[in-house]
Design goal:
The chain is α+β, with helices and mostly antiparallel strands. The protein contains 5 helices and 4 strands. About 10% of the residues are buried.
């Protein structure tokens, strides 16, 4: 029974991520948490992140982006995409963009976490 429920839950999440079943496509949150490479100037990193803006906007699928850092130095890059497919496509294309190199080179690969989830509630 547990296996069946787990399979059904996974299928429901996959359908929600793909926008299937309802005839609509849910926007998707991309949440990436990371730390900077030791010695990186936060102002230089913010400038490099801002330089990614033209590419992100050119996808036509980015809805909103916020970048934050907490008191421990843990950064969060939160992007709202029009769909899961758009998020995956942009992630793959990002590495081909020359403006991505400075941004990516300042992020420590140790402990970096990226996840995607369909947005269920939006309040502004």
């Amino acid at each position: 029974m547990r296996t069946i429920m787990t399979t059904l839950f996974a299928a429901t999440i996959a359908q929600a991520a793909a926008g299937e079943g309802s005839g609509t496509i849910n926007p998707v949150a991309e949440v990436v948490t990371f730390r900077l490479v030791e010695g990186t100037d936060p102002a230089a990193f913010i400038a490099a992140a801002d330089d990614m803006g033209p590419f992100l906007r050119s996808t036509g699928a980015m809805i909103k982006r916020t970048l934050s850092v907490d008191e421990t130095g843990l950064w969060t890059d939160h992007i709202t995409w029009a769909s899961f497919g758009a998020a995956k496509t942009a992630a793959a294309q990002k590495f081909e963009q020359p403006e991505a190199q400075p941004f990516m080179s300042m992020i420590s690969p140790d402990g970096m976490d990226m996840r995607h989830a369909p947005i269920q509630l939006k309040q502004e």
